[in-house]
Write a structure and sequence with these properties.
The protein is of the alpha/beta class. It is 36% helix and 17% strand. It has a single domain, classed as Glycoside hydrolase/deacetylase (TIM Barrel, Alpha-Beta Barrel), CATH 3.20.20. The radius of gyration is 18 Å and the shape is globular. Bound molecules: zinc ion. The site of zinc ion (ZN) has 5 residues, from strand 5.
């Protein structure tokens, strides 16, 4: 009985909160995929990325920027089609070397959330067993001058933000924005919570620091009624199709 009630409630919720589209979360693009790799869920091949873009375009989805997602969510109005928005976390060099040319070929916008401390391999993502190459300053500059690419912030050091005190949270969120703005010469208005770790206070800090959106990593669709400071994303992995 409870289950039936839950299902009905869920159906009514979906009716009033239509699914508008998907923000996809990606990490690395690797030439050779190894399903046994510890990081397999964070890696896709260039071919798979290309097939994914083509698949969405064939299904009639609009490939949009985070800015466009924000506008739709704030206006509460549907585009005439469903959308897909591609985003990368952390700032791996393969995003520039392998993904960028594919997005360019298909004229498809994308966002890279850069962890400031990882640039030029000053520090590296510690959950990776091997030491992947991170974006260089030169690559970041090229990407920030590319109209299809949006650069967002993914903090200074990639911490679990909810475990920090207020001052440290603010430093990670605001200083990363200011440094990226200085490096790129562009306003940085989009933020990704490391590990999708967030709460009400963090949403307020992100907003007060001048960001316009922030994304999570728990898999789900973007629906009417979501906050622009807690936009849901779906993980794109080799098992996604
Ligand atoms: Zn991350």
């Amino acid at each position: 009985m409870n289950k039936l009630f839950f299902n009905i409630k869920r159906k009514i919720y979906k009716l009033f909160h239509p699914q508008w589209g998907e923000i996809l979360m990606l990490h690395r693009i690797v030439p050779a995929y190894n399903p046994q790799s510890k990081n397999a869920h964070l890696e896709i091949t260039p071919e798979f990325l290309e097939q994914t873009i083509v698949k969405y375009q064939k299904k009639g989805y609009l490939c949009v920027t985070l800015e466009q997602v924000k506008e739709q969510v704030l206006k509460g109005k549907h585009f005439h089609k469903k959308f897909v928005c591609f985003t990368f976390d952390d700032g791996f060099a393969d995003n520039f070397e392998l993904a960028y040319p594919i997005f360019k070929t298909h004229n498809c916008p994308f966002t890279i959330f850069v962890t400031v401390g990882f640039l030029d391999n000053f520090a590296t993502a510690n959950w990776y067993k091997e030491q992947p190459k991170m974006l260089s300053m030169e690559q970041l500059t090229k990407l920030s001058n590319e109209p299809l690419c949006t650069i967002g912030s993914h903090t200074l050091t990639h911490p679990h933000l909810t475990e920090l005190d207020f001052e440290a949270q603010k430093r990670e969120i605001l200083l990363s924005k200011q440094i990226l703005e200085q490096w790129t010469g562009k306003p940085i208005t989009h933020f990704a919570y490391p590990y999708g770790d967030y709460n009400e206070q963090l949403m307020q800090i992100v907003e007060s620091c001048g960001y316009q959106t922030a994304v999570l990593c728990n898999g789900n669709y973007v629906r009417r009624g979501q906050s622009v400071f807690a936009l849901k994303r779906k993980i794109l992995s080799m098992n996604s199709h």
